[in-house]
Amino acid sequence: MNGSLAAIGDAEGTVSIMQLCKSLYETSSEEKNTILEIFDRDFRRQKLIEVAAKQAKDTKGTVK
User: Fold this and answer.
1) What is the rounded CA–CA span in Å between residue 8 and residue 3?
2) What's the predicted TM-score (pTM) here?
3) Residue 64 scores a pLDDT above 60
């Protein structure tokens, strides 16, 4: 089935197996590139946040 099935469960314990259409389990090259760009942008953003937090901590330690 190549990833075309999904198990869906609810709070009462009922589980249903659903077959997904092809567009929900196969990605296009455009989608892959977009996701990679999002991950790259988020990685750079996280690094900037870490640097800013370190600078703020260093500044706090030197100001009395």
Assistant:
1) 14
2) 0.52
3) no
